[in-house]
C-alpha cells in the first residue's frame, strides 16, 4: 500500500488499486501443487526434445544464492524439498521500490521429505506465524524470512528450524492451482464434517465426498475462518491443502500419458525450481507405484498461540517438534497416534477415505484447539454492533469510506454493510494489505464523530485515529482491517 511519500496522487492511487486487481495475475503462490508435480512427473517418461527444453526454460531458477544454499543429497537417498508459496508481483515491486524479495511475503510453507527407496513422501506444513529468530537477529514470524533473504533465506531458516539439510526448492504461482485442477477434470475430496464459510470464501459443502472444480478447491484451501469454532483455522486450512495435494497426485497418476503432458505443461508455466525435468524423471521408475493412502504422510508444526506486543504468534512446542522431526527423519509418520493430530475428523485428510471422527473431535474442540473458544467473543461482537447501530443512524455521513484489507472477502463484506447503513463505502482488497491492527483513520478533524461511530460499530478492537501524515488515505476515511 502506498505510504505518505508514494509518488501516486490520491486519484491515481484509487485508479491503481481498482484497476490493478483486474489486470495483474495476483502472483500468490500455493505450494501443494508442487508435490503433485514432482510425483506426477515420476511416471511421465514421455517428455523429450523441445518439450523438455521448454519445460526447463519455464521453471529453472537463476537464483545463485538459492542454489548455493541447497545441500546435494546422495543418489537414491531420502532428501528434503522446501515447497514454498509467496507473493510475487514484479509490477508492485517496481511501484513500491526496493528489491523484489523485500516486497514479497511467504504465505504457505511446507517441508517435504522424499524417500526414493521406500517410496514414501512426508509433507510438513510450517505455520507461517511461527515465532523464530530471523537472520538479522530480530524475532518475528517465520514468513518474514523470505522478505529478508529471499528463497535462500527461507531455505536457511527452515533448515535451521527442522535440523535437516534441504536439497531442493520449488515455488509455484497460485493461479496455476486453478488451472491444474481444471486440466485434470476436478479433484475428489472427502470431508468428515460439513464446511460453511459464507462471510469470506463462500464455500459451503456437506460432509461426504465431493468432486471439486478449480474455484471450490481454491476456496477450500483458503477457508480458515470456516474453522474458527475449533481454534486456529490455519491448522485446518493446511490440512485441507495437504488433502488437495493427495487428490491431485491420485488424479494425475491415474491419467493417460497425454493428460499428464497437459498437466505438466500447465504447471510448468508458473513453477520455479532448481530441479530439471531430467532430474525429476530420474525418480520416475521408483515412484511408479506410489499410493497416497499408504505412502504419503503429513503433519504440521506443533505450536501454541501467544500474544506478544499486541501481535499473535505461534510459539513452537520444541520437545514435540524434535520428536516429530526424529520420526520424520527415520521415515515414520509425523504423529505417533491420530489423536496427536487435532485436525483429524474435522478437516479433510490425505486419505481417500473419511475417518468418521468428526463428532468426537467437535465435542472436544476447546480442549485441543490451543486457543480459547471464540463463541463468547463472537456473541460480544454481535451485542456491540447492536448497541452501536444507533450511533450510525444519528451520525452525519459526510465522509467517503474506503475499506482496505487482504483478499479474503472481509473488506467487501464490511463495505456492503456500511453502504446498507447509508455510508458511501468502497472495498479495496489486495494481497499486500497486511495490517497489524484494526484502525479507522480519518483525514480531517471534522470527521472525528463519523470515524468514532464507525470504529464503535465495527468492534472494540477498532480504533479511530486522526491521520498525522503517517498514512496514505485512499478516501476521507479509511478502514484498515488487520491481517489474520
Features:
Aminopeptidase, alpha/beta, 2 domains, 484 residues, 18 helices, disordered N terminus, single chain, Alpha-Beta Plaits, six-stranded mixed sheet
Helix/strand layout:
Blueprint (H helix, E strand, L loop, with lengths): L9 H14 L8 H9 L8 H11 L4 H6 L9 E8 L3 H7 L9 E10 L4 E7 L4 E3 L5 E3 L2 H19 L5 E5 L2 H9 L3 E5 L3 E2 L7 E2 L2 E5 L1 H9 L10 H21 L3 H12 L2 E3 L3 H5 L10 H4 E5 L2 E6 L2 E6 L1 H12 L28 H6 L1 H4 L6 H20 L6 E5 L4 H11 L4 E5 L8 E5 L5 H11 L3 E5 L10 E4 L4
Parallel strand pairs: 1-6, 3-12, 15-16, 15-19, 17-18
Antiparallel strand pairs: 1-2, 2-3, 4-5, 6-11, 7-10, 8-9, 13-14, 17-19
Helix pairs in contact: 2-9, 2-10, 7-8, 7-10, 8-9, 16-18
Walkthrough of the structure:
The chain folds into 2 domains: 16-368, LCP protein (Aminopeptidase); 375-480, Alpha-Beta Plaits, CATH 3.30.70. The strands form 6 sheets. A 6-stranded mixed beta sheet has the order 11-6-1-2-3-12, sandwiched between helices. By secondary structure, the chain is of the alpha/beta class. The chain contains 18 helices and 19 strands. The radius of gyration is 23 Å and the shape is globular. A hairpin with a 7-residue loop joins strand 8 and strand 9. Helix 2 packs parallel to helix 9 (233-253). 44% of the residues are buried.
Structural class, from helix and strand content? alpha/beta
| Number of helical segments with 4 or more residues | 18
Q: Can you tell me the CATH class of the largest domain?
A: Alpha Beta
The CATH homologous superfamily of the largest domain is termed LCP protein
- Strand order across the largest sheet: 11-6-1-2-3-12
Amino acid at each position: 500500500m502506498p505510504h505518505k511519500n508514494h509518488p501516486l496522487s490520491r486519484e491515481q492511487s484509487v485508479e491503481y488499486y481498482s484497476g490493478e486487481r483486474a489486470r495483474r495475475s495476483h502472483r500468490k503462490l500455493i505450494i501443494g501443487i508442487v508435490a503433485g508435480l514432482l510425483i506426477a512427473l515420476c511416471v511421465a517418461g514421455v517428455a523429450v526434445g523441445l518439450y523438455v527444453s521448454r519445460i526447463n526454460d519455464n521453471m529453472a531458477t537463476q537464483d545463485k544464492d538459492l542454489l548455493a544454499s541447497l545441500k546435494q543429497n546422495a543418489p537414491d537417498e531420502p532428501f528434503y524439498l522446501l515447497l514454498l508459496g509467496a507473493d510475487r508481483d514484479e509490477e508492485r515491486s517496481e511501484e513500491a521500490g526496493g528489491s523484489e524479495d523485500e516486497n514479497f511475503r511467504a504465505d504457505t510453507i511446507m517441508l517435504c521429505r522424499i524417500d526414493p527407496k521406500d517410496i514414501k513422501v512426508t509433507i510438513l506444513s510450517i505455520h507461517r506465524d511461527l515465532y523464530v529468530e530471523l537472520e538479522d537477529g530480530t524475532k518475528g514470524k517465520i514468513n518474514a524470512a523470505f522478505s529478508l533473504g529471499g528463497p535462500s533465506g527461507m531455505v536457511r531458516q527452515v533448515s535451521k528450524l527442522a535440523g535437516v539439510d534441504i536439497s531442493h526448492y520449488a515455488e509455484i504461482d497460485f493461479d496455476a492451482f486453478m488451472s491444474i485442477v481444471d486440466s485434470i477434470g476436478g479433484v475428489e475430496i472427502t470431508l468428515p464434517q460439513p464446511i460453511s464459510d459464507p462471510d469470506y470464501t463462500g464455500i459451503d459443502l456437506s460432509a461426504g465426498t465431493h468432486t471439486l472444480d478449480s474455484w471450490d478447491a481454491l476456496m477450500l484451501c483458503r477457508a480458515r475462518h470456516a474453522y474458527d469454532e475449533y481454534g486456529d483455522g490455519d491448522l485446518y486450512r493446511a490440512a485441507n491443502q495437504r488433502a488437495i495435494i493427495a487428490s491431485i497426485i491420485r488424479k494425475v497418476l491415474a491419467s493417460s500419458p497425454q493428460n499428464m503432458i497437459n498437466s505438466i505443461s500447465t504447471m510448468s508455466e508458473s513453477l520455479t525450481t532448481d530441479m530439471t525435468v531430467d532430474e525429476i524423471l530420474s525418480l520416475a521408475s521408483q515412484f511408479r507405484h506410489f499410493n497416497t493412502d499408504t505412502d504419503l504422510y503429513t503433519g504440521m508444526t506443533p505450536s501454541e498461540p501467544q500474544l506478544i506486543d499486541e501481535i499473535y504468534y505461534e510459539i513452537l512446542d520444541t520437545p514435540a517438534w524434535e520428536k516429530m522431526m526424529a520420526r520424520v527423519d527415520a521415515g515414520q509418520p509425523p504423529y505417533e497416534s491420530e489423536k496427536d493430530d487435532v485436525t483429524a475428523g474435522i478437516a479433510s485428510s490425505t486419505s481417500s477415505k473419511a475417518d468418521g471422527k468428526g463428532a468426537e473431535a467437535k465435542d472436544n474442540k476447546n480442549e485441543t484447539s490451543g486457543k480459547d473458544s471464540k463463541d463468547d467473543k463472537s456473541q460480544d461482537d454481535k451485542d456491540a454492533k447492536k448497541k452501536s447501530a444507533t450511533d450510525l443512524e444519528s451520525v452525519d455521513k459526510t465522509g467517503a469510506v474506503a475499506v482496505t484489507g487482504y483478499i479474503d472477502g472481509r473488506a467487501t463484506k464490511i463495505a456492503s454493510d456500511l453502504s446498507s447503513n447509508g455510508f458511501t463505502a468502497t472495498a479495496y482488497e489486495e494481497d499486500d494489505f497486511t495490517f497489524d491492527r484494526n484502525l479507522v483513520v480519518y483525514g480531517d478533524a471534522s470527521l472525528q464523530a463519523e470515524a468514532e461511530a464507525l470504529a464503535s460499530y465495527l468492534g472494540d478492537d477498532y480504533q479511530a485515529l486522526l491521520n498525522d501524515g503517517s498514512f496514505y488515505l485512499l478516501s476521507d476515511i479509511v478502514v484498515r482491517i488487520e491481517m489474520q
